[in-house]
Amino acid sequence: xxxxxxxxxxxxxxxxxxxxxxxxxxxxxxxxxxxxxxxxxxxxxxxxxxxxxxxxxxxxxxxxxxxxxxxxxxxxxxxxxxxxxxxxxxxxxxxxxxxxxxxxxxxxxxxxxxxxxxxxxxxxxxxxxxxxxxxxxxxxxxxxxxxxxxxxxxxxxxxxxxxxxxxxxxxxxxxxxxxxxxxxxxxxxxxxxxxxxxxxxxxxxxxxxxxxxxxxxxxxxxxxxxxxxxxxxxxxxxxxxxxxxxxxxxxxxxxxxxxxxxxxxxxxxxxxxxxxxxxxxxxxxxxxxxxxxxxxxxxxxxxxxxxxxxxxxxxxxxxxxxxxxxxxxxxxxxxxxxxxxxxxxxxxxxxxxxxxxxxxxxxxxxxxxxxxxxxxxxxxxxxxxxxxxxxxxxxxxxxxxxxxxxxxxxxxxxxxxxxxxxxxxxxxxxxxxxxxxxxxxxxxxxxxxxxxxxxxxxxx
Amino acid sequence: xxxxxxxxxxxxxxxxxxxxxxxxxxxxxxxxxxxxxxxxxxxxxxxxxxxxxxxxxxxxxxxxxxxxxxxxxxxxxxxxxxxxxxxxxxxxxxxxxxxxxxxxxxxxxxxxxxxxxxxxxxxxxxxxxxxxxxxxxxxxxxxxxxxxxxxxxxxxxxxxxxxxxxxxxxxxxxxxxxxxxxxxxxxxxxxxxxxxxxxxxxxxxxxxxxxxxxxxxxxxxxxxxxxxxxxxxxxxxxxxxxxxxxxxxxxxxxxxxxxxxxxxxxxxxxxxxxxxxxxxxxxxxxxxxxxxxxxxxxxxxxxxxxxxxxxxxxxxxxxxxxxxxxxxxxxxxxxxxxxxxxxxxxxxxxxxxxxxxxxxxxxxxxxxxxxxxxxxxxxxxxxxxxxxxxxxxxxxxxxxxxxxxxxxxxxxxxxxxxxxxxxxxxxxxxxxxxxxxxxxxxxxxxxxxxxxxxxxxxxxx
Lengths: 460, 461
Hints:
The structure holds 2 protein chains of 2 kinds.
Chain A (H helix, E strand, L loop, with lengths): L16 E2 L6 H10 L4 E6 L2 H15 L6 E2 L4 H6 L2 H14 L4 E6 L1 H5 L4 H10 L8 E5 L8 H16 L10 E5 L4 H13 L4 E4 L24 H6 L5 E5 L1 H15 L3 E4 L5 H15 L5 H21 L3 E5 L2 H13 L3 E7 L5 H10 L7 E4 L5 H10 L4 E4 L4 H7 L3 E3 L17 H23 L10
Parallel strand pairs in A: 2-3, 2-4, 4-5, 6-7, 6-8, 8-9, 10-11, 10-13, 11-12, 13-14
Chain B lengths: L13 H7 L10 E3 L24 H9 L5 E6 L2 H6 L18 E2 L4 H6 L2 H15 L3 E6 L1 H5 L4 H12 L2 E6 L7 H15 L12 E7 L5 H12 L2 E7 L4 H5 L6 E4 L2 H15 L3 E3 L5 H14 L3 H29 L3 E6 L2 H13 L3 E7 L4 H10 L5 E4 L3 H11 L3 E4 L4 H6 L3 E4 L10 H16 L9
Parallel strand pairs in B: 2-3, 2-4, 4-5, 6-7, 6-8, 8-9, 10-11, 10-13, 11-12, 13-14
Antiparallel strand pairs in B: 1-12
Helix pairs in contact in B: 2-8, 5-7, 8-11, 9-13, 12-13, 13-18, 14-15
């Protein structure tokens, strides 16, 4: 009864968030920056921020996560953090030798009014940035948006700084990924290769946060989008952004700066969202869809067909980031399940609109909320009012799952008590299969564990 | 080969570090090698800007110390991150209330950053206190709270007046120092509660335990030992902690302090204010654990107590020593690198490793003090590297050069150790196995053995 403190009546809360379904911008900026090759994220603020973000990412990926900090002191918080950041730039290029330093701000540096752009410009003017090395910056105040906002801001910063328009179009597309796992990024690349669409994926954390064990520690693993790749994005034929919250800003920058037009589609989570993604790839890359992709789709539909009786009408509670849970909710509906409760701590009016369009007719009893006070506490209260058959979300759902005895599928960030997310994707048709498998295992394990003797079945 | 520079000798394997450190010259005197140097290590310094420091901040320090007080409301006043990252991350167990495991935050937004967050804080506090009826409340002020000018102390005073429970401000701006400074802030908060129970009379032979956080139930084990000796515990700060226990902590006759980094200041203050003497102990390893019991018996000048302590130790050892033997056989001669929060814990670890035949070749801490580092230097073998506030590059260079087989550290060090092909033991606040006490020593041996002798290392090519 860990959460015995959850009251079962929902009361209006104005000032308070309990058990947040989000975290702050800088961790998203740090994750995005890790998806660029040879890049060291830098946290411009107190050293605790950097330590927390590194710990959070380390727990989730079980990989070393490197990032530097401006180590603010009382002095810096009074006189500004310029001196700290300039010293940091010297030290980082001197010791850790990254190709790029990706600086993000924090609530502290934003509040005291540090202008990252101006400080980085000064570092450049002072000659502190060695030839061929780069410092980019993104403003990521913790009191605006969520970790997803920070991710989007850092992607935008990369696109803005590196993409160049040479005038000669390259037969390739830009693929901007919302916040997904290294396994998912690997899968996105596999799909584009199957489709024979040449693409630049930004960011790309595969081979950075899922590195093989070879007895050696590499501060900059082989993965990550490279500088030449990012530069070439300005000459691509098209940008495909996967997820509005995570990628639209960067897509817009590429359009404004280099006149590369863009399409934003959902992250390919589930059947229909993957259909749209494949279509977007085919359109942007001017290719036809190969049979192998159609076969993958067929296998997913086949699995759902085989098991649809177990999925029918199941009530599901979902929480996480908008780009990830919107297509997931759609997928649940397509499997005849009922996403009755959906919560995201990340603000944005589009969420309500999109949810309304999804559940309005197909699951009219659904409750959903995002932004302030859309937290795990609220979700738990809803569940107490009327229970669900399944919970899908990050590790923090385990308290509710345990207290209310509900099957639980882990998806999202962070997952700090199981492995698998780094290795097995949830995007694409294969990823869809994994979601179906996990959902069924959760539901059917509970049937097996609780079925009365006379209805306990071998064949299911 | 040693290259004298600035009076600090540098062993050959430090050459590469030195190269890396061309810019961080200041770090040279934060690293020393036993046998090569009579100089003192420099510690207690702020981290250099731009380093990949393993250190945390003031807020983190205050939060980990106060967190285990289970019947208190812990409200974090600031943007969402600070609360999100400290939601139930510490394995501090409670035998009763679990209120501390929830994450409450005022989740400040741009509006409050501009217009102030006092009203929001007040509303949050009032609604939480009405709902949960906690015994007391701690309000953590994070980085920007002071900068935007919120008078947290005034809000706390007002709510204290209106709600009749102690609402204690914990002013923990992250930039105001390191984690160690956060310990001090937390201790100041405890001092505010202490002595407010004026009716309680402590029984004879009463102690407070300071600096145990009941990770994996370690406190329960320790208090059982003391109970067997006839020693009573008034309050533990802060493992399985309760507000009312802290209120009467001033009535104990002795403070037994472990994790000296976090609590020694409080012990000193209690000595001054309430004339309660204190002793520094450690519960890790056989020697230190047994001393922690004997010293208490000595303090109370009770032969009976000492007799009971001896009996207890004898009984425990008669089981433990043979059980350790089989681990020792496999581990004899293996080498360990230690990088933990405080240097005092590192001292116990060096000794505990010796019990299982292992040698500490690298010993470091995030926030050790001079006394602890001096002790460490005396204790360690020749050639051992001693380091303050290290970073991943240094650490991985150290373990490579010394050929360590095991790394003892916390969450951020684990994957680096694994990547280097080293065994790992989590001796930080996320550990799930009790490592204190006699049972803890056996758990420690098992955990080290399981990791160092794992067959997985042979597959690494």
